[in-house]
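Narrative of activities, Objective 1.

The group set out to show that a structural description can be obtained from nothing but a protein's sequence at a throughput compatible with the screening campaign. Below is one input-output pair from the validation batch, recorded exactly as produced.
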Amino acid sequence: MHVAIETGSLKIGDTVLFIGETTGVIESTVAKILNEEVEVNEAQKGDKVTFNCQALVRPRDKVYLIKNVSIS
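Output recorded for this entry:
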């Protein structure tokens, strides 16, 4: 999957959610990130990166980063 990082960052081990009309909802863990064909540990806002997904996802699917937050 090739994506543009619009906000924040994406790291190896992060959990992402793909949502699409045909795809439905798919959760996946980022195992490897490629930025301009170079393996990196993290991608920042503005980067266009590639990472693998264990399921079939489509070009127009939305991709969301899942974050655990604690409420005090």
